[in-house]
Amino acid sequence: VPTKEQADALSKDLQNRAVIP
Questions:
Q1: Distance between CA atoms of 12 and 18, rounded to whole angstroms?
Q2: Cα(8)–Cα(16) distance, rounded to whole angstroms?
Q3: Cα gap 10→16, rounded to integer Å
Q4: Sign of the alpha-carbon torsion through 12, 14, 19, 16
Q5: pLDDT in 10s for each residue of the chain, 21 residues
Q6: Is residue 2 a contact partner of residue 10, using CB atoms and an 8 Å limit?
């Protein structure tokens, strides 16, 4: 089970990718 920090990092990574066209 991912820790909150891992989940936050993954969420941030996904958000960063979403910004890239």
A1: 10
A2: 12
A3: 10
A4: positive
A5: 679 999 999 999 999 888 877
A6: yes
**What does the block give as tokens for 9?**
């990092």
d(CA 17, CA 9): 12
Predicted local confidence at residue 18, as pLDDT: 83
Give the predicted TM-score (pTM) of the model. 0.41
Q: DSSP letter string over 1-21? A: ---HHHHHHHHHHHHHHHH--
**For residue 2, which amino acid is it?**
P
